Amino acid sequence: MPFVELKNSPHAAGVRPVRIHYRDVGRGRPVVFLHGGWGYEVYPIDRQIEALQGDVRFVIPDRSGYGRSARVLRQMPTDFHRRAASETLLVLDALGIERAVFWGHSDGAVIAAMIGLAAPERCERLILEAFHFYPNKPESRSFFERFARHPDEVNEEARRRLAEDHGAAHWRKAIQRNCRVWLKLAAESTRPDQDLYGGRLGQLKVPVTFMHGRHDPRTEPGEMERSQAAVGGSELRFIEDGRHSPHSESAAWRECNGILRECIFQSGVRRVKRNLVTLF
Predict the structure, then answer these.
(1) Residues in CB range of 45: below 8 A, 6 or more apart
(2) How many CA atoms lie within 13 A of 18 on its CB side?
(3) CA gyration radius for the chain?
(4) pLDDT of residue 1
(5) What's residue 277's pLDDT?
(6) pLDDT value at residue 274
(7) How far apart are CA 28 and CA 101, in angstroms?
(8) First to last CA, the chain
(9) From CA 215, how far away is CA 217, in angstroms rounded?
């Protein structure tokens, strides 16, 4: 079971050292998968690993506070996405991964975008699935309130996966911390058009593909169109039968795999061309 040990992490204030568990599967072009707000095992990428592991090395860290990584008992600060982006880069430094395709899901997609803003030289491409643009999500408020108060109301399969991921004694805290911070983000939002990126999303200088379920219940009306408009030259791929996690849904995963294959291997072609230009 692989771990890296960080001296400290902005995502785990007060914890030293910070042990980060990660999965490292396959061989070839590195793709860093960043999980959503409830952890990896609720929406695993098993089907993508099975299809692509002969050509792709998937590196999947558990953020501190999740899975088998260092426990974090404090409530999450509202800048947790930025802190997690910094932690992810520290993990990649420890693993000797200088550059990769970043595929983020939900909160992981926000984190991937922040990595793209902070360290574009580390990014071959960003694949942003179930992306969040707004901090205030009125249509998701009842969802966040429900599970912040009553995490045991998740369905039986989700309970099993969450307990397997975080441990029987900790999975409820993982859900509650995430739901509460989204409620706090909404409370601190001062304008309906406010975004999570301080108006900087348009400064992304790396290729971006938004991969989004058409029926994602965590998405506000017009949110994805606003996201694409903010990032000039980005691509928005709606998955018609997809919801919040198209990559793990029976009606959508095959389409996701096709999009991922295009994005990952287009990045490889660009890298080869760039290296040839350098040589000649």
Answers:
(1) 33, 58, 60, 247, 248
(2) 25
(3) 18
(4) 73
(5) 45
(6) 47
(7) 12
(8) 43
(9) 6
